Amino acid sequence: MKQLLQNIKEGNAEIVDVPIPAIKSGHILVKNHASVVSSGTERMVVEFAEKNLLMKAKSRPDLVKQVLDKAQREGIIPTIQAALNRLDTPMALGYSSAGEVISVGDGVEDIKPGDRVACAGGGFACHAEYVLIPKNLFAKIPDSVSYEDAAFSTLGAISLHGFRIAAPQIGEKVAIIGLGLLGLIMIDICKAAGLKVFGIDLDQSRVDQAKSKGVLAVHREMALDQGLNFTENRGFDVVFICADTNSNDPIELAGQLARDKGTVVAVGAVGLEIPRKIYYEKEINVLISRSYGPGRYDHTYEEQGKDYPYGYIRWTEGRNLSAIIDLIESKKMDFKSLITHRFPIEEGVKAYETITGKNNEKFLGVIIQYPDNVETKISERHVDLKKPSGLNLEGKKVSIGILGAGLFASAVFLPMVQKTTSVRKLGICSAKGLSARQLAKKYNYEFACTDETEIVKSNEINTVVILTRHNDHARQIISGLQANKHIYCEKPLALNTTELLEIKQAYKNAHSKLMVGFNRRFSPFILKAKDFIIKSSEPKIIHYRVNAGFIPSNHWVHDPLQGGGRIIGEGCHFIDLCIYLADSKPVSIQTIGLPNIGKYNDDNVIINIIFEDGSMATIEYLANGDKSVEKETLEIFSGGKVVQLIDFRKLILTSNGKKTQYQSRFTQDKGHLGSWQAFINSIELNLEAPITFEALFESSLAALMAVESLRKKETIFIDEYIRLLEN
Predict the structure, then answer these.
(1) Distance CA 674, CA 125 (A)
(2) Is-contact 529 632, C-beta < 8 A?
């Protein structure tokens, strides 16, 4: 399928062929018929992308500070690589479209293929022939409503939400500052609600457009005098600011126009330096309208489909979409008169040239159209890319397919694979297809797809790399093992004991290798540390402090079904490393934690591990610290020897009063490449896997036990726990 993308690094927009998204639970697959280009949000992104690197930095000092902080913690080289990687990721713009339902995922009710729907959501309702839409972000449209009208529904919902939070009453007088799309839509909403409307804009053509809707509208120069006359010098009950400008003029004008104890609602992105005097004297209520309603930016609502109770949250973003459709159907809202440009998807780049003023044409509603009556074929979930020139397959015993194309894949894993030239890189698969296509092209893979079975069942692929979200790991591991593929899985191995035991059984029946990316074992500094400390015949005390940083509660990693929580999702790394360094079987695990106080998610904990030889490890995993402090600090004491490792950038080995220090000034090496290379070597040379399955099972089970200990507030003994599982 064709999709319109914006390259943030280079600044250019392009139409690319992308695999059609795979249907998944809680979603519908929609064939777009029309989508609307936002002259506010999308123009802002395009203009940012067109700036050079220095101008980008000047416009986002907040991001520059993050980059500098990261460089101080992790080194200059990985920070530069990460920043350039983020810039090199194309953006799928657009958030308002309409089309026909092609397929319906499990858990979505009252909708069927062939139904017509309006779609919403950044990253969902984008400018592409096919889009994957969560169940809370679409609304059915009747036959009497055209696809083009319905495609404006999300923009309509933005204005409608601003209207709702103001809560005006029938007969009140409202002013609308800014008569672009949002302002003109607001006129229709206010008229339908029985309000008296006054419009203001700097562009006379938009003033005239507002007048054609039957309201009084004036140029900015006349706004104050005419507005006071309109309200008989009392001021407006509500002032809606629908403009898109950095200027502070709209908020200043709104204060002058509002009545005593009136309300000002900022719907558009405008300067918000509020002049205290007039707002204080009138005691004006100032509200900021957040997008298109409750649910926006809530991961559980938008992506997981958990709706809010109707009786408590009457108007969500999804229900606002339906309300706009109702207004269109009842002829109380008109979008046809707002459309100034239409472009077929093949010429979608011209839409961005229009909204950024490159062709000097006035514009308002810009529509992207999609071909009708195109039959969806399963082959379109696959896009072949140009094979690398001079491809030499001789001697390449490892042919890989990648499942997952997220941040870890793009920033860490795929750049690392580039360094292993003995591997044949075949395909990358992701659910939506865009990221798979972009990364496959960037790193010279032969195809991109959205059907994971294509990777798992391919006769050409003998090694599957799993970089998906945590809840997919166990299923994909088992599927790969059953297909006799070698498996390299970025942690965790499993989210619960049931999955872990199923993997154990699948591995027992398989004739292939399984590896989990417990990469820290392979860090050069860790190898030096183990070689140094293992010479001690005494038990070890291991202290591992992890300044993990805060992650908001709505992040998917905290979802027990999707991410498993941070102890399982990331803490398994540190548990595994302690087991590796102790070089002894763990006997018991005890986890204690701070109260979550409504902010944290069981991610301020101390994990104590006792080993068979008497060694002890303490892991402090903390979300309540400051990011400027080193993330990982490891100390080991044993037999007069001390190991100190600071953020994988400095290693100090001390014995008999003598210190040996190793330092990496510009980068960290946490063992990612070493882990991958060891796995590849084991396949090519037919060696044992770098980490035995018993060790993978042990570390993964220990992470699950750490969570169980925290929940039960008791020490968990491993042998007893395993006996209970097996029985």
Answers:
(1) 41
(2) no
Output the pTM of the full model. Answer: 0.85
Token digits of residue 438: 């972009």
DSSP string of 339-358?
A: EEEEEEGGGTHHHHHHHTTT
367/341 Cα distance (integer angstroms): 6
Q: Can you say whether the dihedral through the CA atoms of 487, 488, 489, 493 is positive or negative? A: positive
Fold of 2-140+335-369: Quinone Oxidoreductase; Chain A, domain 1 (3.90.180)
Q: How many CB atoms lie within 10 A of CB 218?
A: 20
The answer to whether the peptide bond before residue 344 is cis (omega within 30 degrees of 0) is no
Q: Residues 252-262: what's their mean pLDDT?
A: 97
The CATH class of the 382-386+394-517 domain is alpha beta
Q: What is the mean pLDDT of residues 54-65?
A: 62
Which pLDDT score, from 0 to 100, does residue 314 have?
96
Is the pLDDT confidence value at 65 over 70? no
- pLDDT at site 377: 60
Domain range annotation of the chain: 2-140+335-369, 158-288, 382-386+394-517, 520-678+688-726
Q: What CA–CA distance (Å, rounded) separates 458 from 427?
A: 10
Q: Which of 367, 421, 429 is nearest to 396 (CA)?
A: 421
Domain topology for 158-288: Rossmann fold (3.40.50)
Query: Could you tell me the pLDDT band of residue 549, with boundaries at 50, 70 and 90?
Result: very high
Q: How many residues does the chain have?
A: 727
